[in-house]
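In this supplementary section we document a worked example of the pipeline. Step one takes a protein sequence of length 440 as its only input; no multiple sequence alignment statistics are reported here. Step two produces a three-dimensional model, which step three serialises into structure tokens for compact storage. The input and output of this example are shown verbatim.
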Amino acid sequence: NGDCNGNAFVLPNGGTPPYTFLWSNNQTTQEATSMCADNEYTVTVTDALSNTASISITLAEPDALSINSTNSNVSCYGVCDGTSDLSVSGGTPPYSYTWDANTSNQNTQTATNLCADTYSVTVFDAAGCQETGIIEITEPQVLSLSVDLTQNPSCPESCDAIISVLPNGGTSPYNYQWSTNANGETSDYSGGLCEGSYTITVTDANNCLNTVSTILTDPDPISISFDVTNAHCNLSDGAISSIVSGGTGTYYYYWDNGQTSTLINNIPAGTYNLSINDDNGCAASQSILVENLNGPEIGFSAESPTCSGNEDGILATVVSGGTPDYNYLWSTNETTEFIQAAAGNYLVTVTDNSGCSTVGEGTIIPKPALQIIATPTSPSCSGQCDAYVNASAIGGTPPYTYEWFNYETTMDIDGLCGNIDVYLTVTDANNCQQDTSVYI
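The serialised model returned by step three reads:
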């Protein structure tokens, strides 16, 4: 169509051959060529006797080749399942088809397994005429999923969480399939969910699918601990500071004594309970004991004086309880942990670091006094020097040493004459001494 490649052949009848031909396009052959459609051509034929005859003709041309297509676009993003079915009119049947290389060089009226792209196809008719068409195969947007409006469980072990799935792309409408722990939900929204992992598969109208997963987590449980200052000496000077963690948002404090702060002070000994609520209404409670720290308890350790009547005995305190450090005040006005004194009873006042005081009484026990038992024996006859003295010691601290008037150092002394005083000094292990004398 539109080409000037037509021809016309004139066949004379009658007259006297040979014939000559003259066309209106100045061709002089029996067959005229390169003729266009819709133009009128005249040919004059002259025979051998110069007789002439003329005829006019107009050439027709076929309808132009026309290509229409019925396309089936790609069903899912990235899939190559598109088709294009051609409908050809005009030209001269039959037709042949040549698709471009992107179709794997298909040559049929219907091209299949097409990806999203732009394709060219050339149609040839029986006369060698050709027409090229452009075919566009499209695909939907990729089906993407996002988890929207996720609300985790409000409290540990609560099942009040919410998940909403937002699909984008693909081809609506969508179908939803939730994992088995989502209460059998089939819409884009599921509530009343517990802590755990959830998977949602979304299928669109073309059976394209995508999957998204999300995890719901419980908030940390509310944890309560305390820093306690115990009461002293039955006073209301205790305190409790609370330390709270976990939960969500702001904490609200409710003590069983009516206070509502993190710290309560100026309280007596006793058990106190604290209840905590957070912004989600989660609750926890915990009790704590405030003890009464009594004043110090006083014990004693004592050492007797080395000798009866000496003032080198020791009385030391053994203090426990209360709040260290301790201060001391003795009835002797000394302020040390121990005193050195004679045997007897002594008072001490111990005051701890909290001001609690306790009075105790300790005793230094005297050692038994060193005593000498001396038994004399008279001479056997007047003028004889065979008298003797048996001596022994008790009390004090053994062992003992003996020293007689004549420097003898035995317990007993003999060979004594009559009518004399015999002197003895006994010394114990602490160097305490006792003197005695006997008359023979």
